[in-house]
Amino acid sequence: MKKIGILHGKERSFPEAFVERVNSKKIEGIIAEPVYIEKVVQGESSGYAVIIDRISQDVPFYRAFLKNAALCGTAVINNPFWWSADEKFFNNCLSTKINVPVPKTVILPSRDLPADTSADSFRNLSYPLDWGGIFNYIGFPAYMKPFAGGGWKNVYKLESIDDFFEKHAETGELVMLLQEEIVFEEYYRCYCIGGKYVRIMSYEPRNPHHLRYVADFKPDEAKLKMMTDIVLRINHYLGYDFNTVELALRDGVPYAIDFCNPAPDAERTSVGEENFEWVVETAATYAIEKAQEQVDGADNLTWGEYIKRSASKQALFNG
Q1: Which of 26, 55, 115, 245 has the most C-beta neighbours closer than 10 Å?
Q2: How many domains does the chain have?
């Protein structure tokens, strides 16, 4: 019997519906359940063929558990090694190399010195930074947000240089991105599951959180294809099994705004009934596919094109 587990925290509607949906399909030799952990011993199997990870970004213990499980053959969704290494600034940098439009973006050192560092730790950093060059490149209004993490935490809209310095002083030890504002005509949040299933959802980030999926943009077939191609390209290069990509359309051009969301919101009350039904059914279908393909003791993780191409070049060089 192959077990599909879902590792989650406070969320309820998606994990419960996912488990019920997988089991309702009555696939011979496959069952689904919430993950249960009694102990974690190095090099020992978790007992799961597949685990969908919805919480390890907030619980380091779970991330370590998932890496050990993956080493023993579990197909972890998403790859815990890549998720540990990835962050939003790298995503933007990669996009500039794969022909995905992104806002002008710079990364900023933390306003306060990180714990256990001193001014000597930053002897390679020019200070003050070239603030004039940075502000001329980005322009105002602008957005500032952490270079890693999500959930609309510590996100600022900045109207001027004075506003920037006032808000940056509040960010403490957070490393921040400063990003061009894209004044958009349409905005979409797009699920991508398994690197092949895409759901493009109208989204209005300027609305209160519970009303953001109430937007009613109506893309034509050409626009849908253009956005689908971008969503697939991003996820193929990053290697995420389960992710969302946010696209802001300015003058018909889709700019990727935020696309490092490996545990995206899937609560029925926020995404709406139709989107909820799609994500439950698609996640269940993909998890079953992964379980059927899974081989005990093998590497059953998904690796993105960026990593695979780098590894192939290194192998060629060593050979």
Answers
A1: 245
A2: 3
